[in-house]
Specification:
By secondary structure, the chain is mainly alpha-helical. The chain is built from three helices and two strands. The protein has a two-stranded parallel ribbon. Strand 1, helix 1 and strand 2 form a beta-alpha-beta unit. The protein is flat and about 50 Å long. The chain starts with 5 loop residues before the first strand and ends with a helix.
């Protein structure tokens, strides 16, 4: 801010997706100066035994902790499994972006 940047802070980047979307929208709307978006998160969010700990940084969670994390977050899909709805949304956005090029 001291250098004239627009600085937007998202207080809860773990769960407040609407605030992240708003920050991006506000950043795009500001055309007279650069924008920095600060998103505050908890490292390893969702991991029952490693969240907010250095144990979640730089090392795999491990098979058991990964499953516990999926359970904690309500993620009903397996390891590396991406639901079709995610692909559908991604492809729709990619197609829209291609039209703008």
């Amino acid at each position: 801010e001291a250098y004239g940047w627009q600085v937007i802070t998202v207080a809860d980047g773990n769960t407040d997706v609407d605030a992240i979307r708003k920050a991006i929208k506000d950043a795009k709307a500001c055309t007279n100066k650069p924008t920095l978006i600060k998103v505050k998160t908890i490292i390893g969010y969702g991991s029952p035994n490693k969240a907010d700990s250095h144990d979640a940084h730089g090392a795999p969670l491990g098979k058991d902790e990964a499953q516990l994390t999926r359970n904690q977050l309500g993620w009903k899909y397996g390891e590396f499994e991406v639901p079709q709805s995610v692909y559908d949304v991604f492809r729709a956005h990619a197609a829209e972006g291609a039209k703008k090029q």
